[in-house]
Amino acid sequence: MATYIVRRIVTAVLILLGASFLVYLLTAASGDPLAELRASSSPNKAQLIQQRTDLLSLNVPAPLRYFIWLKGAAGCLVPFANTCDLGKNLAGQAVTEQLGIAMVQTLSLVTVAVILAILIGVTLGIVTALRQYSALDYGVTFMAFLFFSLPIFWAAVLLKEYGAIGFNNFLKDATIPLPVVVLLAIVLGLVAMAIAGGAATRRWIAFGATVVASAVILELLSMTKWFLTPGLGLVVIALTAVGFAFGITTLSAGLKNKKALYSALITAGIGVVLYFPIQPLLAAATPLMIVLLAIVAVAVGILVGRLMGGYDRGQNMRSAALTAFLVGVLIMADRFMQAWPAYFDNSKIRGRPIPTIGASTPNFDGDFWTGTLDRMTHLLLPTIALILISIASYTRYSRGSMLEIMNMDYIRTARAKGLSERTVVMRHAFRNALIPLATVVAFDIGGLIGGAVITERVFSFSGMGTMFAQGLLLVDPNPVMGFFVVVGITALLFNLMADLVYSALDPRVKVK
Question: Rounded to an integer, what distance in angstroms lies between the CA atom of residue 93 and that of residue 90?
Fold first, then answer.
């Protein structure tokens, strides 16, 4: 394993050297960095031209200039030595500084979008494969291809129009008209009908129950103006926590394992009991405190599962730990909702909390909760745009992979042995269905680190994609090379990780 990794790293370094040399020459040949100054009528034009020539070493031929850049870039390999020098851009700003700002913007934009797209896409793909040729399968397939075919800039503009401007206008009154309530209830009823499947009677019961429940809930939200002062409350949190316990146990252990179910329910109960005592602590929350509380919650779940005993403590611990984490997320969501009125009424927000541009509100002053809400609302629309475009590929890949696995001989053998369908799907099929996805996910993550150029432009994010596009437009080689180094290293690193994940998922694949 170690020999393989070292060999791959050496190969990656050689690839980066050759590719960076080629990219540098192409960038240098793409235009004249002095063209703007040559056309200037400024009285000190000659001085400005000389300053830029010295700044970018333009008096040195491009092939030799590359090695000057490479000498500074090699200093980035020495950690904590503060010797990293990727040159300066046309404005005289260090590229390492510009790169640091751009990377933070891009990572904050794409990280959540990638994680959610993978989770939702893989889940939908697996479910539709198990329900092949059903109404749910056709519906998900249609929506996936629809979103995949939408131009990203058009989807982004629609989100800005209806997700930001339209929703902000709605918050002035926060009352849902009756025709909208009826329409939404019917749409949700059709979704429930497709999910329910089975006999016609079962589907129509699901449709009717969902329509009635949705209409009642939407009307209550409208009457109480819930969108202005949102919150979950202890009752909703308790019911949802119990649902989490049953759902997690069903997937991880099966409801026949009573010890695992009781472990999850006890953990959910602990979270509900601690809801009020933990509120004063959350009022003074910090990022470090939230991380520590999450670790403590998972540790409590593991401890409860271990103390519960039984024939498989591992299933107890997994069920309880996942339930504890989800209940903690639920309490966090409720706390963010409690902070919504303060954020909504802030003088910088002015009653329009969903922004259309930027990564944060300028000069916004608030505590941990309102400050995080501000960053979250700015990321909301671009994240949704990236998810809608990315989710189709994950859905189709996971669906195709799962269908292929479910027709394998060992799946039929597992069923013939009398194993439950949950065991067949979760233990035998699901893991093997993830193998082809490892490569897709690795390349997608490596590509997205480079920045979603169009999305960044539409939503005014100064990320990696914008930095690269501006560097090419202005014939500014150093930012382009800084972008290339980050994206190149990321792509090669995730390619290596994909191979290692392959060997972990499939014992037949040996890393040699």
Answer: 7
- Give the three-class secondary structure for 177: coil
Cβ atoms of 393 and 122 within 8 Å: the answer is no
Chain length of the chain: 512
Express each pLDDT in 420-476 by its tens digit: 887 888 888 887 888 777 777 777 776 666 657 788 888 888 888 888 888 888 888
Cα atoms found within 13 Å of the Cα of residue 185, Cβ hemisphere only: 19
Contact 499, 507 (CB under 8 A): no
Lowest mean pLDDT among 39-43, 91-95, 223-227, 232-236: 39-43
CA dihedral sign of residues 251, 253, 254, 258: negative
DSSP string, 113-124: HHHHHHHHHHHH
Q: Which residue type occupies 326? A: L
Centre a 10 Å sphere on the Cβ of residue 425 and count the other Cβ atoms it contains.
Answer: 21
| Upper half-sphere CA count for residue 374 (Cβ side, 13 Å) | 23
Residue 286 φ/ψ region, left for φ over 0, alpha for ψ in the -120 to 50 degree band, beta for the rest: beta
Q: Shortest CA distance to 467 belongs to which of 50, 106, 77, 21?
A: 106
Q: Three-state DSSP class for 199?
A: coil
- What Cα–Cα distance (Å) separates residue 490 from each residue in 104, 144, 261, 485? 15, 28, 41, 8
Q: Which of 257, 267, 308 is nearest to 420 (CA)?
A: 257
- By the 8 A CB rule, do 397 and 148 touch? no
CA distance 60 to 62: 6
Q: Structure pTM?
A: 0.83
How crowded is the C-beta side of 152, counted as CA atoms within 13 Å?
Answer: 18
**pLDDT tens, 323-382?**
999 999 999 999 999 999 999 988 888 888 998 888 888 888 888 999 999 999 998 998
